[in-house]
Design brief:
heterotrimer; A mainly alpha (about 325); B mainly alpha (about 220); C mainly alpha (about 675); B: about 220 residues; 7 helices; C: two-stranded antiparallel sheet; two-stranded antiparallel ribbon; 5 strands; globular
C-alpha cells in the first residue's frame, strides 16, 4: 500500500463527496435542455444544501434517536460505497475490505435505515414511502447483485477493483451477457435513485412518490445530509456502471501517477455522458404506476439472470 | 472470448438479441409493438444468417437471408399491420398469468433449454453451435407466449416467432435446412398467414371480437 | 476436572438435568427458579460453549455408558461436528436461560418449577442428540427432545389453538422420527448392529444409500421445517413461551442440520452429486416460500417462525451445494459451501434467539402478539428496541453484522461453481444464487416490517403507553446474544478457522486459502475476493463520526421540536400508519399465486366498514387437509365396528381367536 494508492483513495472519496451535487446539477441541466426549459445553474444543488445546513432543525415530537442517527448512517454508507468503487484507480486500499457483495450490502443497509427512519414518526406518508422503497428495493437489490455477478464471472473475482482492472485490460470484445446486464443495471439505477419511470424526483404528489415521502419529516442539516447522500448514491451508481461496462481509462496498478492524469478526465467525460444519457431516458419515458414498478424490477432481475445464463452458454 | 473471431462474436450478439426480443414479446401487451418486435427479430435473424453466410461461404445461406428479409421483416409485419388496422385490435387484454410469473417461468425455460442444448452443441461442428441453446429457448418462449395470450393476433405473432427460433436453430446446428425444405416452410408460413387473416375476419364477424375465449363455447355441450 | 471435551460436555449436560430436577424442590417459587436456577443454567451453557469451542480441534473422544437396557450400552462420541453444534447449543442457551430467568413469572399455566424441569430436559436431550453414537441413543434423545419441547409448547394448554399447535408438532415430529428410524434401519446395511461405527463401516449399494439419504432428508427435513413439512413450525413456535421459541428455533432446528450432516457426510461417506441437488432444491424452495410468507404475517412470532423456515432453507441450500461439490470432487468449494452453511447455523442461533426473546419482552410488556396492536415501543422500551434492531439488521444480511458473512460465503460458493462438469447443474447454480439473493432482500423487507411496526411509529393502542422495558436479567440475555451477532460479524476469520477444522473432519478437505490476516476474510485468495469487516466497520464509524463532527463544528446543533407534518389534515392519528397487512400488501400482490388469500371487503354503504383478510398456506389446504379428510373418512368406516356393546367386542375377540387357531393348526 503505497502513498500513491492512499492518495488515489483520498482523491476518490473527496471527488465523490465534492462533485456528487455537481453531477445532479448536470443531470438537471440536461433535462431542462431536453425539455426546452431554461436550465438552472449547475451549482444549484450546492446552494440548496448550504441553505439547508444553515437552518434550524425541526424534529417531530415523537422522533427517536434512530431518526436522528439515520442521516449520518446513510451518508456514511454512501461515502464508504464511493470509497470502494474503482472510479479513478483500481489500486484502492479499501477495496480489500469490501468487495462488490459488501457494496450491495452497504446500499441495502442505507435503504433499510432510511425506511426505518421513515416509519419512526408514524405518519401515513412515512410508512407509505418506506413500504414502497422496500418494495422496489427487494427486487432491485438482487438484480444489482446479479449484474455484478456476471462481471464477476467474466473476471473470476467479486472484488470490484479487480473486475474493473480485468475488463479494462481486455481486448475489445462483444459481451452479449454484459449487454443484457447493462439493460438490467440501467433499470436498477433508475429505480434505486428515484428516477422517472419509477419515481419522480421533482414531485410531491403522494400517489407517485417514494423517496420524497420518506424524507418528509426531515429538515435542515438532516435533510441536507440526506439530499447529499442521494446525490452521492446517484454518483456512485453512475460510477459502478462505468466500472462495469466502460472501465477503459481507469488507472490500473502499474501506471503510477500518470495513470490518474488520464483517468480523472476520462471519468469526467464518462460521467458527463452518463448524466446526459440519464436525462434523455427520463425525458422520453413516462412515469409508471407504482404497481408496475415491481414488474420493471422483475424485468431487471430477469435480464441480469439471463445475462448470467448467456454468459455460461456462450462463454462471453 | 478474446480468441473468438469478431464475426462469431457478432453472431453470438445477434443470438442474445433474439433471446432478448423473445422476452420483450413475452412481456409486451401492445399488439402493434409486438409486431415491431417480431420484425426486429426477423431482421436480427437475417443479419445472423448473413454473417454466417459470409463466414462459411455458403451461398444458399445468402438466399435464405434474403427470404427472411423479404418474408419476415417486410411482408408479414406489413400484413399484420394491415390486419391490426382493419380489425382495430391494438391491445391484448391482461395475459392469463401475470407478467412477473410469466417472466420467471420463462427464465426456467431458458435454463432448461440451455441445459438441453449443451450435449447437442457438443455433437455439432458448426461455427455457431453455442447458440443452439438460444434457438431452443426462443422456440419454447414463443410457445409459452402463445399459451399465455388471449387474443388470436398475439398468438399468430407467437407462432411466427417460433418459426424464427426453428430457423435459427437449424442454422446454428447445421447451417440451415436444405433449400427445398426452407422454401417449403417459407411458403407454409405465408399460406398459413393468409388463411389466418381470412380466419380473423370470420371470427370477428361471428363474435364481434378476436378474444379467443369465445371459441371455448364451440365445444360439445354436456 | 474433566479431561476431554466429551467428559466436560457430559458433566454439563448432567448439570442441566440436576438444575431441572432442583426446580421441583420449590416448584412455585419464581424467585428460586428464576433468580437462581436459570442463571446457573446459563452459566452451564457458557461453560459448555467454552468446552465445545476448545473441543473442535481436539481428536474425537469415545465413551461407553452402561445404563439402560442390558446388552445395549449407550455409545457416545464427541468429534468436531458434535462440538460445533454443542457450541451452538451452549452459546445460545447462555443468553436464552439468562433471559428466561427474568421471563417466567407467575400465571403462565404450569408452575415455574415444572417449566424449569421441562426446559432443562429439553436442553439435556439436545445435548444427548449431539453426543449419541448409536441409533438407539440417538433416537431416545431425539424423541425426548420432541416430547419435552411438546410439553413446553403446550404450556398454556387451556387454549384450544395451542393444544392444536402442540398436536400438529407432535404428529410431524413423529413422522420425521419414523423416517429417521427407517433411515438408520437401512444404514446398518445388514450387519444389524446399530452403532454409528458399524454404519460407517457398512457398504451400501447405491440404491439403498439413496433410500437412506432420502429418508434422512425427510426425517430431518421435517424437524428443520423444510417445505412441505413446515406446517408445524408457524403453529408451534408462536404457541410456546418466548424463551422456548428461541430455543426451538435457534437450537433445536439445528439438530436437524446436525443429523443431516452426520448421515450424509459421516455415515454414508461420499454422497453423489445429485443428492446435493435435491437438498439444494428443497432448501431454496423452503427459503423462498418461508420468506414470502414471513413478509405477510401479522403475528410477530409467526413472522419469525416463517423466517426460521427461510433460514433453515438457506442452511440446507448450503449443505446441498456442499454435497454437489463434493460429489464432483471439488474439495475447496465443498468446504466453502459447508462452512457457509455451518456459519449460518451459528448466526441463526444468535440472531433468531435474539429476535424471539425481543418479542418475548414485548409480549410481556404489552400482552400483544398481533402487530396491528403494537407500535412506538422504541420510546417505551429502548433497551429491547435497540438490541432487537441488531438482530433485525443481522438477519436481513447487512454488513458488518453476522448474517452478511454467511450470505457472502454462500454467494462466493455459488459464484465460483463455473467448472461443474454437468451442463444442467452449472446452469441451475446461478439461478440458485439469484434465489439466495432474492431471499436475503426479502428478509430485509420482512425485518423492516417486523421492526418498524413493533418499535417505530406511534403506539396503535392506548395501553401501549404503559409498556415497561425488560428487567435486568432479560437485558443481560439480550445483550449476550446481540454481542454474539456483532462478534460473529466482525471477527469471522477466527470462526472460520474453527469451521475449517470441522470441514476437514467431515469432508477431508479445507478451504483453498487459509486466512491471510486475522482481520481479512479471503477464503479463495486466488480469486481475489476478500472481506474485512473490522476495517469496514472502523472506516464506516470513522466516516460517520467525522461527518457528525464536521456538521456540528461548521454549522450548529440547534433543534426545535414540533408536531409532525399532517398535510393540513388535523385529525391525523395512529391508525393511519401502515398496519402489518398494509405493509405486506406489495408482497401479497406480487407473489399472489403462492398465497391462499381470503378477503372480506366492506361495501360502499356499510355504516361500520370492516376489512378482514387472511393469508393461508396453499400447501396446508391442498396437501394436508385432503389427507386429514381421508383419515377421517377411513376412521368413519372403521367406526362401523364400534357398537358400544360389550358382547359385540367379545365376539370380535372370539372370532379373531377362532380364525387364528384355524390358520395356525
Amino acid at each position: 500500500m503505497s502513498t500513491l494508492h492512499l492518495a488515489t483513495q483520498a482523491l476518490e472519496i473527496g471527488a465523490a463527496i465534492g462533485t456528487a451535487p455537481l453531477f445532479v446539477g448536470w443531470v438537471n441541466q440536461c433535462r431542462a435542455w431536453l425539455q426546452n426549459r431554461r436550465a438552472p445553474s449547475l451549482l444549484l444543488p450546492y446552494r440548496g444544501i448550504r441553505k439547508l445546513f444553515h437552518k434550524d432543525a425541526v424534529l417531530a415530537e415523537r422522533a427517536s434517536a434512530l431518526f436522528r442517527v439515520t442521516p449520518y448512517m446513510v451518508f456514511g454508507a454512501m461515502v464508504l460505497v464511493a470509497a470502494i468503487i474503482p472510479s479513478m484507480g483500481t489500486r484502492l486500499p479499501l477495496t480489500i475490505a469490501a468487495d462488490s457483495i459488501a457494496l450491495v450490502g452497504l446500499l441495502a443497509t442505507a435503504r433499510m435505515f432510511m425506511s426505518l427512519a421513515a416509519m419512526d414518526i408514524g405518519t401515513a406518508f412515512g410508512t407509505l414511502g418506506a413500504r414502497r422503497e422496500m418494495m422496489v428495493g427487494f427486487l432491485a437489490e438482487p438484480a444489482l447483485l446479479m449484474v455484478i455477478f456476471v462481471a464477476a464471472l467474466i473476471s473470476q473475482t467479486t472484488s470490484l477493483a479487480a473486475i474493473a482492472e480485468h475488463l479494462s485490460s481486455q481486448r475489445l470484445a462483444l459481451y452479449p451477457s454484459l449487454a443484457f446486464t447493462a439493460v438490467a443495471f440501467t433499470l436498477v439505477l433508475l429505480a434505486e435513485n428515484a428516477r422517472i419511470p419509477v419515481d419522480n424526483p421533482a414531485t410531491h404528489l403522494e400517489l407517485t412518490m417514494i423517496h420524497e415521502a420518506m424524507l418528509l419529516e426531515y429538515s435542515a442539516r438532516h435533510l441536507a445530509l440526506l439530499e447529499w447522500a442521494a446525490a452521492l448514491k446517484l454518483f456512485n451508481y453512475a460510477c459502478i456502471g462505468i466500472a462495469l461496462f466502460v472501465p477503459w481509462g481507469v488507472a490500473t496498478g502499474s501506471q503510477g501517477p500518470a495513470g490518474l492524469l488520464v483517468s480523472v478526465p476520462a471519468l469526467a467525460l464518462k460521467l458527463a455522458a452518463a448524466g446526459a444519457g440519464l436525462a434523455l431516458i427520463e425525458t422520453v419515458s413516462a412515469k409508471l404506476r407504482v404497481f408496475r414498478a415491481p414488474e420493471l424490477m422483475a424485468t431487471a432481475f430477469l435480464f441480469a439472470v439471463l445475462g448470467l445464463l448467456v454468459h455460461l452458454l456462450l462463454g462471453a | 472470448m478474446n480468441n473468438v473471431p469478431v464475426l462469431l462474436q457478432l453472431v453470438n450478439a445477434c443470438a442474445a438479441g433474439l433471446l432478448l426480443l423473445s422476452f420483450a414479446m413475452l412481456s409486451q401487451r401492445r399488439i402493434v409493438t409486438l409486431v415491431y418486435l417480431l420484425a426486429t427479430q426477423g431482421a436480427l435473424l437475417c443479419l445472423a444468417t448473413l454473417l454466417l453466410a459470409w463466414r462459411t461461404h455458403q451461398p444458399h445461406l445468402y438466399i435464405s437471408a434474403g427470404l427472411t428479409l423479404g418474408l419476415k421483416v417486410i411482408f408479414l409485419p406489413w400484413l399484420l399491420h394491415r390486419l391490426i388496422r382493419r380489425l382495430d385490435v391494438y391491445w391484448d387484454s391482461e395475459p392469463l398469468i401475470n407478467a412477473s410469473v410469466t417472466m420467471l417461468l420463462g427464465l426456467l425455460i431458458v435454463v432448461f433449454a440451455f441445459g438441453l442444448a449443451q450435449p447437442i452443441a457438443a455433437l455439432s461442428s458448426t461455427a455457431a453451435r453455442s447458440t443452439i441453446g438460444i434457438a431452443i429457448a426462443v422456440i419454447l418462449l414463443a410457445f409459452m407466449m402463445m399459451i399465455t395470450r388471449r387474443k388470436a393476433m398475439s398468438q399468430v405473432v407467437g407462432f411466427l416467432s417460433m418459426e424464427n427460433g426453428l430457423f435459427f436453430g437449424a442454422m446454428s446446428a447445421t447451417y440451415g435446412m436444405p433449400m427445398v425444405v426452407e422454401l417449403g416452410v417459407a411458403l407454409d408460413v405465408l399460406v398459413a398467414m393468409l388463411v389466418l387473416g381470412v380466419f380473423f375476419f370470420q371470427i370477428r364477424e361471428q363474435f364481434d371480437s378476436l378474444d379467443l375465449h369465445h371459441l371455448e363455447s364451440l365445444k360439445e355441450k354436456h | 476436572m474433566p479431561k476431554t471435551p466429551l467428559d466436560g460436555a457430559l458433566v454439563l449436560i448432567a448439570a442441566w438435568g440436576v438444575i431441572g430436577l432442583a426446580g421441583l424442590l420449590r416448584p412455585h417459587s419464581v424467585r428460586f427458579v428464576g433468580r437462581v436456577l436459570f442463571p446457573l443454567s446459563a452459566l452451564c451453557g457458557l461453560a459448555l460453549a467454552v468446552v465445545a469451542a476448545r473441543g473442535v480441534a481436539a481428536p474425537a473422544g469415545h465413551a461407553l455408558l452402561v445404563v439402560g437396557l442390558p446388552d445395549l450400552p449407550i455409545h457416545l462420541r464427541c468429534d468436531a461436528l458434535a462440538c460445533l453444534f454443542l457450541l451452538v447449543l451452549g452459546a445460545a442457551t447462555a443468553g436464552i436461560s439468562l433471559f428466561a430467568g427474568g421471563y417466567f413469572r407467575q400465571g403462565h399455566g404450569a408452575a415455574p418449577g415444572l417449566l424449569c424441569l421441562q426446559y432443562h430436559m429439553f436442553l439435556a436431550s439436545m445435548g444427548c442428540v449431539l453426543l449419541a453414537d448409536d441409533a438407539y441413543a440417538f433416537m431416545v434423545a431425539w424423541e425426548s427432545m420432541a416430547l419435552s419441547s411438546y410439553f413446553l409448547v403446550t404450556t398454556q394448554h387451556r387454549l384450544a389453538e395451542i393444544r392444536r399447535a402442540g398436536f400438529l408438532y407432535l404428529l410431524i415430529a413423529h413422522l420425521g422420527a419414523i423416517a429417521i428410524l427407517l433411515s438408520f434401519g437401512v444404514l446398518q446395511g445388514g450387519s444389524w448392529r446399530f452403532t454409528f461405527d458399524s454404519m460407517r463401516a457398512a457398504h451400501l449399494s447405491a440404491p439403498w444409500a439413496t433410500v437412506a439419504f432420502m429418508l434422512a432428508l425427510l426425517g430431518f427435513g421435517a424437524k428443520a421445517g423444510l417445505v412441505p413439512l413446515h406446517v408445524w413450525l408457524p403453529e408451534a413456535h408462536p404457541a410456546a413461551p418466548s424463551p422456548v421459541s428461541a430455543l426451538m428455533s435457534g437450537v433445536m432446528l439445528k439438530t436437524a442440520v446436525y443429523g443431516m450432516l452426520r448421515v450424509s457426510f459421516d455415515l454414508l461417506g461420499s454422497p453423489p452429486w445429485w443428492w446435493g441437488l435435491i437438498a439444494l432444491g428443497a432448501g431454496l424452495g423452503s427459503a423462498f416460500y418461508g420468506v414470502i410468507f414471513s413478509a405477510v404475517q401479522t403475528d410477530m412470532k409467526r413472522l419469525l417462525a416463517w423466517s426460521s423456515i427461510e433460514n433453515l432453507g438457506i442452511i440446507f441450500a448450503g449443505l446441498g451445494l456442499s454435497i454437489v461439490f463434493s460429489g464432483f470432487r471439488m474439495g475447496a468449494l465443498a468446504a466453502l459451501a459447508l462452512i457457509a452453511a455451518l456459519y449460518h447455523c451459528l448466526n441463526h442461533a444468535f440472531m433468531k434467539s435474539l429476535l424471539f426473546l425481543g418479542t418475548g419482552a414485548v409480549l410481556h410488556a404489552t400482552g400483544e402478539r398481533n402487530l396491528g396492536r403494537l407500535g412506538g415501543l422504541m420510546r417505551r422500551m429502548p433497551w429491547v428496541a435497540w438490541l432487537t434492531l441488531i438482530g433485525a439488521l443481522a438477519i436481513a444480511g447487512l454488513p458488518p453484522l453476522n448474517g452478511f458473512v454467511s450470505e457472502w460465503l454462500l454467494l462466493q460458493a455459488f459464484l465460483f461453481a463455473g467448472d461443474v462438469p454437468r451442463a444442467f447443474v452449472d446452469m441451475l447454480l446461478p439461478v440458485g444464487a439469484a434465489i439466495v439473493a432474492l431471499c436475503t432482500a426479502l428478509a430485509g423487507y420482512a425485518m423492516v416490517k417486523f421492526y418498524g411496526v413493533i418499535f417505530l411509529g406511534q403506539p396503535r393502542e392506548p395501553a401501549l403507553a404503559e409498556a415497561e422495558d425488560a428487567g435486568l436479567l432479560e437485558r443481560a440475555g439480550l445483550v449476550w446474544l446481540a454481542a454474539g451477532c456483532v462478534a460473529l460479524g466482525v471477527l469471522p476469520v477466527q470462526v472460520i478457522g474453527m469451521l475449517d477444522t470441522v470441514s476437514r473432519a467431515l469432508l477431508g478437505t479445507t478451504l483453498a486459502a487459509p486466512a491471510a490476516h486475522w482481520w481479512l476474510l479471503a477464503p479463495a485468495a486466488a480469486r481475489g475476493a476478500s472481506y474485512g469487516p473490522l476495517v469496514f466497520l472502523l472506516v464506516a464509524a470513522l466516516v460517520i463520526v467525522l461527518t457528525l463532527l464536521a456538521v456540528r463544528l461548521l454549522y450548529h446543533r440547534r433543534v426545535r421540536r414540533a408536531p409532525p407534518w399532517d398535510c393540513g389534515y388535523v385529525r391525523l392519528d395512529a391508525r393511519m400508519q401502515d398496519s402489518a397487512e398494509g405493509f405486506g400488501q406489495p408482497i401479497r400482490h406480487i407473489f399472489q399465486p403462492f398465497f391462499l388469500i381470503r378477503r372480506e371487503l366492506p361495501s360502499a354503504f356499510d355504516r361500520l366498514p370492516r376489512y378482514h383478510m387472511e393469508v393461508g398456506d396453499r400447501i396446508w389446504r391442498y396437501a394436508y387437509e385432503p389427507v386429514g379428510q381421508l383419515v377421517r373418512r377411513v376412521a368413519d368406516l372403521v367406526a362401523v365396528l364400534q357398537q358400544g356393546r360389550i358382547s359385540t367386542y367379545l365376539m370380535y375377540s372370539f372370532v379373531t381367536l377362532l380364525v387364528l387357531l384355524g390358520v395356525v393348526l
